[in-house]
Fold this protein.
Amino acid sequence: MIEIHFDEASEAEKLFWLLHHRPQPDDSPLFHAAYDGKKTVAVYIHGEEKYVLESQIVPAMTAFMQEVMEDRLLLSIIANVFYFRDVEEQQQILALAHSFLDGERRDYRKSAAFAASRTAMLRDAFASFLRDGLSFSFSSFVTFRLKPYMERLQHYVELAIDEYKLEQEYQNFVQMLRDCLAGRAPQWPRLYLVHDPPHFVFYDSEQRELSTAEVRQLIDRHLVFSQPMYIDASVLAPLVSLAPAEIELYTDHPDDGMVQTLQNVFQERLTVCRRADFSRLFAANAGNGGEA
């Protein structure tokens, strides 16, 4: 018998459920699990010990860690190591941590330290520890036997917190630009912006292309210098300075970072079109004598 003691009854219940529902031969079960209704799960091995551990118990324990315990451990690190106490913040950081955990399956940040997957780390830890006749505290097992795994989780939480802070800074930046726009009267009724990565080409309401020098002359220097954050001088600064009533943005890369920022800042003022549509519009207006 292997006896596992938990700190929470809900943890014991979930492990029992996973063990109880593992597929086994009907005529000759390899093991059975028992739950005392409190905080202890017992596993009784009927088949050959090594085979039962490798084929049944270790996979079940590994699945339990990843499906049940991993989020709890991540949240514990977020709250108790990095002191994020707000529940909403915790959930946002947890979601970002999951994006890095998923990236591990795509060899995220390839390195010798991360050569083994989390699944392999857990499987090896359980395989080297579990044996018939063992009684142990699960929390102690995590503390003393899963140090590399916990270090891996903490690493991903650190990455997630860095990403979270960057996202917060970005949202503050976007809101700052929205506030600037809200306080400015539109200088132009319409502006055309053509995206030729990595550049954005400006056209006035008559679809006349503006030179780089002309675009820079549009910038309200007071607006730029009075803001606490850097505003891109090639695109954002002239656009916010002009505060056009309408912007038509032509691009084949709607997921581009600057395109996304322009959408977030200008919102309903901005319409995103395909790059080819500008060529057709330009040709049509040229045929009509240049009327916009």
In short: The first strand starts at residue 2 and ends at 5. The chain is about 55% helix and 15% strand. The CA atoms of residues 108 and 219 lie 41 Å apart.
